[in-house]
Amino acid sequence: MSEPRPPLVVVIGSVNIDHVVVSDAFPSPGETVLGRSTQVTLGGKGANQAVASSAAGVRTAMIARVGTDPQAALARAGLLNRNVDVHGVVPVSDAETGTAWITVAAGDNTIIVIPGANHRWPSQGDPLEGAGADADVVLAQLEVPLDVVERAAAACTGRFLLNAAPAVRLPDRLISRCDVLIVNEHEQAVVSGQPAPDRATDPSAVRKAHAALRARGAKAVITTLGGAGAIITDTDGTTTAIPAIPAPVRDTTGAGDAFVGVLAARLAAGDSLLEAARLGTAAGSLAVRVAGAQQYCADLDALRATLATVTPAEKG
Predict the structure, then answer these.
(1) CB-side exposure of 29: number of CA atoms within 13 Å?
(2) Which pLDDT tens digits describe the chain residue by residue (316 residues)?
(3) Do 109 and 236 touch, CB atoms closer than 8 A?
(4) Among 120, 215, 287, 316, which is most buried by a count of CB atoms within 10 Å?
(5) DSSP states of 240-251 as a string?
(6) Beta-carbon-side half-sphere exposure of residue 90 (alpha carbons within 13 Å)
(7) Is 202 a catalytic residue?
(8) How many whole angstroms separate alpha carbon 307 and alpha carbon 286?
């Protein structure tokens, strides 16, 4: 009798090289300020989420496009070093690997992204190259062309998760493919057509948006609220608020990606949506404590230990 196949998450999305500058304050237009440090790291929402998924203890493969420049080798090595399968990370001739230019100051960040090869995909066919048939979870974002995401959703035979970031209006045919649709407040407003909620006083606005998205076919919806945690509506329509785990904030870059990657991994491993989201919240709490999108990706033991510091009443 053959051994059972270990769970698999396939992430299709962007791979960037991030150039991070840390300073005490953001410059105003025309102003020069002194920075405190610089880093060059692996980034892109797809790569960030793949690394977080792998760290959370689940076999993870990346489907992406990079250039033929030296940055491509750096990107592939960064993924390999985090135990992410890169057979689907394909070089595109005459293209540059995507880059992001990030300034971190006062616990916040500004980001400029140059997509490069992330927008250079074949116009037809299965972008997952058959991997959708083997994956327990296929995870996508919106830093690659929308038609690529739609074709990946159509090729997925397991669960399809979409992190609708950056925000664009989505066709109902894609929303209806989503086993879990993950958004923040801004993305929720764009995707659902509902007003952005006041995270502190109006959780009913999130519930209303979730109901609208489920009416369009999404099976479950999660809205992440940064320091206010997350609100989840499960496949049965049950809505639960999960508080954030308090943490000293150094840099919010990649915290949402840590949440999403861990969520995907733990769903593939068989956890409930609520438990997977709680572990995702732990990942976000750990991520904001360091600078850079992937400078600290927690393993499953660290996630569980962090979650254990929260009382049952605080878990939501």
Answers:
(1) 0
(2) 556 789 999 999 999 998 989 999 999 999 999 999 998 889 999 999 999 999 999 999 999 999 999 999 999 999 999 999 999 999 999 999 999 898 988 878 888 989 999 999 999 999 999 998 899 999 999 999 999 999 999 999 999 999 999 999 999 999 999 999 999 989 999 998 877 666 555 788 899 999 999 999 999 999 998 888 899 999 999 999 998 887 766 666 678 999 999 999 999 999 999 999 999 999 888 876 665 555 557 788 988 988 888 755 555 5
(3) no
(4) 287
(5) EEEPPPP---S-
(6) 15
(7) no
(8) 11
Q: Which two tokens stand for residue 138?
A: 């296929």
**Residue labelled with tokens 């479950």:** 220
Q: Which two tokens stand for residue 11?
A: 């992430």
Q: Residue 70: is the preceding peptide bond cis (ω within 30°)?
A: no
